[in-house]
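Many introductory courses stop at the sequence. We go one step further.
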Amino acid sequence: QQARRALDQTGKDVKLAILVTITGMGIEEARKALDNAGGFLRKAIGEKTL
């Protein structure tokens, strides 16, 4: 349920949906974090949790 909602909210962007779900970031904040991480999800998650 939560995963489907996140996918719908992010326009079916899987990495973005995962980042939003795991970190609790807003969509735009998560999009910027993912961009800053060069598209690497693990790096974007790591930057948020540091």
